[in-house]
Amino acid sequence: MDERIVSFSWAREILPGRGLLAYANDSREIVIMSLQFYSREPEPEGSTRERSVWEICELARFDGGGPHKVVDTEDPDFVPDGSGFSLKWSPWHVSPECRTATLAYIANNHVGFRRVSIHGKWDKGQDPTLRVEQTDTTAICMPLGADAFVEWEDAIWPDGDGHMARGIIATPFVPKPFQVDVCGAPSRPMASHSAGQCSSVYARDDEASTNPITGIIVHHPDPNNKSPAPEYSLVRLSATATNQDWYQTNVSEHDVALPQWAEYVRRHSTRLVPRLAAMEGLESDSDSEDLDDEFTEDEVPMSQVHPHRFRFWGLASSPGDGCTAVLVTQHNTQHPHRRPRSKILFGRRDPTKETTPGKQTGVAKKLTTEGRLWEAYYGNQWDVSDAVLTGTADSLVHQSPLRDLFKDVTAQQRCVYCESRLSISSQESNCENGHSFATCAATGLPIMAPGASRLCAVCGLRCLKGSELSTIAKKYIGLDAVVDLAGDVCGGCGGKFVS
Ligand SMILES: [Zn+2]
Ligand SMILES: [Zn+2]
């Protein structure tokens, strides 16, 4: 592959161990690849262990250059375009026959929306039947600067026969809402033209800004209460004492409190101290107030300065919207040559704050166990008492294909020490002579060897390793027994294993 990747985006979740990604290269082509991780059946004469393999494969490639004629870099109207974030996948619309999404891509003063669909089932180890349309569903010419990007709302809204997905384009100075029918038919391709012909070279005067948006989060919508436009919060690059636009949101103050990080940045960027103190570097990062007292006692009025300004480099939210985080650098205004420190600052939902009655906050869709755990501990929402170990939860009542597969094997198990019968409960298996073993939370089998299991970090239960399960399956069920470790998650709570 003789190409350079300039932009990259993961498609939203598809199936365990299977995903799609898109990248753009330096010749303005957009490439869609599939990526899989699965266990290949061993060769008959080979080792008994299955081999886990990663497989990546190019599925489609299309021109992402947009309709505008290339302008020479010497031309006064030349504007650089694109960034590492100029591709973004919409959420999937899933129907029984296929799943469909739209890939938004940014070209020179142009945003294209290309429909991508997967037809039929995607079996492990096979390539999916992918269809990428020849032309865009919708395309918009608009003035875009370098580092323009797109963010999608995580929802599909039925609208007549259509399935609308919405989002925000950051130009990057102005947030512009858009909506696209993810299942809409492709439209005729836009003829090649110069950006002057569609007036997308220069932004309107009222959109002139010099503080680009560096991060947007589109909040999870209330599915029963569609807002007129996607609700978002954004940060801009520069935060000083003289500008206020570095944090903006279109959510009503009722529903979203000022995040703690915004409070921190506001306090530190608007703080005034005597110039001398700032010059001497006495003004440290601490919030010490004694400095001010010390110097205000002075008879001579001294000029005052704001010792700090900030730069925002990114904004993100947790899966359930309960927590936000920003990456910032804090700069010293009096000693600009000093290297700024990078920090990640967090904000979390205030549990005591009342929201607009009837308005649902957070996400409607099911989060992963880790996502729920994060929200419970750091986002102040929901609880995970059913997931974390309570001592009373009986994981044996859960039905799963894996548990059904090993149902008969469990009864045949004997104690490794004394060969006696085992009585198996949800967390522990005991033999008649008092030997005890942990019980695998995924299958209900007793774990009778060291190193054969993994400990779940969420609920504290043990699960047998996949390789161990196939050995047991071959021994008790038959050589052709297939252990489908879909997702390979903890049987107790659904948590994932890292290794
Ligand atoms: Zn145009
Ligand atoms: Zn678990």
From TrEMBL:
Biased composition annotated in UniProt, kind: Acidic residues: 282-300
Q: Which residues form the Transcription factor IIIC 90kDa subunit N-terminal domain?
A: 3-332
| Pfam family name, one | TFIIIC_delta
Q: Where is the Transcription factor IIIC putative zinc-finger domain?
A: 412-497
Query: Could you tell me which residues belong to the region Disordered?
Result: 280-300, 330-363
Write the protein's name. Answer: Uncharacterized protein
Specify the species.
Tolypocladium ophioglossoides (strain CBS 100239) (Snaketongue truffleclub)
